[in-house]
């Protein structure tokens, strides 16, 4: 089977029951996505598939042969970090670091959803989504952090989104 992951084509022969997470970790050595709960409840395995957030532990690899898959390893690299990776460093949005790859991939996908105008259950204005605490909490609810770095993660997301980290309002508004 052929998979495009982080811009590189990979030819592998996994069992048809192999999850996308196990393909990345066990067959390709991409250890950024983590196996947390293996039930889609913690978000440690979150990656981007065609720009959308996916719990890779719940998705079969065979379903994604034609898709563009991005793991944390494909977002940035040392010396050239993705803005979200840089913001997590700046705001100390990690503690033990186990959930961090999934948190970052989810945050990148979340901001893309907002840019596309997709409301969430917490959106009070369907025309202009504000990054208030309720909005970010709702959109990131699939990603758990056992170390409770949530306030720092929220600040990192707001920085990348261009919102004031203290108020959630748009910078320059």
TrEMBL record:
InterPro entries: 2Fe-2S-bd (IPR002888), 2Fe-2S-bd_dom_sf (IPR036884), 2Fe-2S_ferredoxin-like_sf (IPR036010), 2Fe-2S_ferredoxin-type (IPR001041), 2Fe2S_fd_BS (IPR006058), Aldehyde_Oxdr_Iron-Sulfur (IPR052914), Beta-grasp_dom_sf (IPR012675)
A GO molecular-function descriptor: oxidoreductase activity, acting on the aldehyde or oxo group of donors
Domain 2Fe-2S ferredoxin-type: 1-75
SUPFAM superfamilies membership: 2Fe-2S ferredoxin-like, CO dehydrogenase ISP C-domain like
PROSITE patterns according to UniProt: 2FE2S_FER_1, 2FE2S_FER_2
Keyword Oxidoreductase assigned: yes
Keyword entries, A-Z: 2Fe-2S, Iron, Iron-sulfur, Metal-binding, Oxidoreductase
Keyword Protein transport: no
Superkingdom of the organism of origin: Bacteria
PANTHER family reported for this sequence: OXIDOREDUCTASE, IRON-SULPHUR BINDING SUBUNIT-RELATED-RELATED
Name by which UniProt lists this protein: (2Fe-2S)-binding protein
Species: Allosphingosinicella deserti
């Amino acid at each position: 089977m052929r998979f495009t992951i982080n811009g590189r084509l990979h030819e592998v022969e996994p069992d048809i029951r192999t999850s996308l997470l196990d393909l990345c970790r066990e067959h390709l050595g991409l250890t950024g996505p983590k196996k947390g709960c293996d039930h889609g409840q913690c978000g440690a395995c979150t990656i981007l598939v065609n720009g959308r957030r996916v719990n890779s532990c719940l998705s079969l690899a065979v379903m994604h042969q034609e898709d563009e898959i991005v793991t944390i390893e494909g977002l940035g690299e040392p010396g050239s970090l993705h803005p979200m990776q840089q913001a997590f460093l700046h705001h100390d949005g990690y503690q033990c670091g186990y959930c961090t790859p999934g948190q970052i991939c989810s945050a990148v996908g979340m901001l893309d959803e907002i840019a596309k105008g997709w409301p969430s259950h917490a959106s009070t204005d369907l025309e202009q989504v504000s990054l208030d605490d309720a909005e970010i909490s709702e959109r990131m609810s699939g990603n758990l952090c056992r170390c409770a770095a949530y306030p720092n993660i929220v600040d990192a997301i707001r920085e990348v989104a261009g919102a004031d980290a203290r108020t959630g309002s748009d910078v320059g508004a």
